[in-house]
Amino acid sequence: MLFPSTYLERKSAVLGDLNDNGDGSSVRSPSLAEVSQTIDSPVSPPDGVLEPNETPLPVTNSVALPNNQRPQDIATVRIGKAQFHPVLLRDACMCSKCVDPYSTQKNFQTPEIPTHIKVRAIETLANGDIHIKWENDIPGFGDDHVSIFPSGSLDARQRLKNKNSMVRDRTREVRHLPWDATRMKKELQFIDFHDYMRSDKSLLQASSLLLRQGLLIIRGVPESEKSVEDIALRIGSIRDSFYGRTWDVKSVPNAKNVAYTAQFLGLHMDLLYMANPPGFQLLHCLKSTAKGGASLFADAFKAAEGLSDKHRAILENTPVAYQYQNAGEYYYHTHPVIEVDSSMAGRPVITNINYAPPFQANYLLPKTPDIAEVAGFLEAFETFTHRVENEDHLLEYRLQEGECVIFNNRRILHGRTQFDAIGGERWLKGAYVDSDVVRSRFRALGKEVPLRVLEQDHDAQFVFEREVEEAKRESPDDDILARGVAG
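Structure for Gamma-butyrobetaine dioxygenase, as requested:
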């Protein structure tokens, strides 16, 4: 079979023949299953002389058996007060021989690192960079290979705050701030369209707000069907679907989706009948002359955090079916109501909510045959529904022409009040952007900005300030002021 040898030849061409010993003989890269043996004395260079500022690192005295390995048997590398497995540390090398400077992709595979690799010497430069030399390095790298770690990149103690630490889990760098209606009427922000399109600082602020609060308004958007595409592309690539690259939300006869009618649309999330629903949704208001049609939003994270441990566990572990079977399409998928992941501190955190009553499949729980489990789910599901649809959680806001709302489709539930399609017009233009695209934009723009600076919002412009001031001028009614004129 020619393919494996051709593949290996292409791979080895990056660094030359890694198995060539230079004299015609070959060197076999040690298997991960081989015995890893360490010594009890400091590791030194072959000539026994350390270069300036180089420090030999102690390792544990043990023999680690591949099928009976214990943590205390593994030789660790100490840098400051942090400990690292030598293979992971070698794997993280960022030198130009290990990482292509143009593609930024690795030039070797992790299993190629010998399991008995050891640190030969370590040097800390004046600027804080760390250089490490290895014993038993990957074949082909040679004794002159030096692993380079920029200052702060191995900072494990401050990994939650140090954005330069490669030890940091960058999956979720922004804290979620759950909100109810009262809080969001004080904190919902808007950004001017021209600032958003021209200023990276404004785009960084927008991406930070979307990751933190899940909801944002863009104001001053030009009256063009292309505007929503421009706003989305400013973040990154658009998520296409069978609805199209962009799509219209307005009342049409014989609508293939309840959103394309004038009737009340309950709280939901879009496209849960897909394996990977879109992360963020944009809706640009082009026309808003119809009576009614206020947008509804609710933070599902806020509703979920108040559940009992019993109900939350049920909603995390019971798959719910969603489907769309219409207009020549048939989509179907199951998701639990609550999706969780472990944080860097080891605690479970909510990552996504899946809730879309209009798009539930005909049979809700196809993977739950046990009657008692069904009863338990129905109780937990009812509790969650009551919490998320509680008026305290419900933010009502009437989008004006020239405004575009962006929200997290995996967190923020959205809906709409009924409107009069005969007496006026309500026309929104929509688009989707995946969560990875928003997070990528945030990381790329914010890599040099401390997280605490992003959370201060010195330049914040609040949506409801204008509405409250208008209400004060129009009526002294305390009840109107107390409601904040939402809608």
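DSSP finds 13 helices and 22 strands in the chain.
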